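Below is a typical protein record.
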Amino acid sequence: MIKRAIAHCGRDIVLSLSPGPARVEQKDFLLDNANMWRMTDDFWDRWDLLYGMFERCKAWEGIGCKDHWPDCDMLPIGHLCVCEDADTKEEHKLSDDPVRAGKGHYSHFTEDEQKVMMTLWCIFRSPLMIGAEMRDNDEFTLSLLTNKKLLNMHKHGRKAKEIYRKDDMVIWKSQTRDGKMYVAVFNIGEEENSAKIKFKDLGIDKENEFPAIDVWEGSRYTMKDKKEVVLKPHSTRCFEIEVGETD
């Protein structure tokens, strides 16, 4: 009914549903009737929720398409849970509900955890929305929202896929039509760990070497087969690799 009303209203409207969490078996209905849909309950700045999002993204892998996207929910970065209504601060100050937390707080995620979140959201191509007081953004929060290579991955990446998971080491890839491939390596465990980027998993020639840039650091590399990436707990590395045309 809502979809039909939008179709006849005479202007463009994005229909975002919050079934929270949507079930993968509902995908055909959601693709037919919505532009985006929450695949999770309310997402807050808690590590257990971010850890669980990797399984959710894997479950919804390959289902998003132009104008229709599974939604990881809003980004809990910056100044959160701000209550500006003086009349409600007193009644809410003792509440356990983070939404009613008065003056609020800055994200409980560490900077590394926020990079993990932004990298996963962008390579998976979740809609990007920030639910914070943006006038209070600090320099780090602003850097999360303005990283051009990260946003290019989000805008132009396609065929996003988890290509590796062993315990809490995870690798995702996506590619663009102009010959770039993005590879994100995550350590979502509690100990330092490592994983290798294998060209056979990326679908590229293992005999070649490719120029690459670290999306977060800006460092340049020559990417070779079986590059080992060592990561501390709750951290990520993401590479933009110039591989040329791929299938």
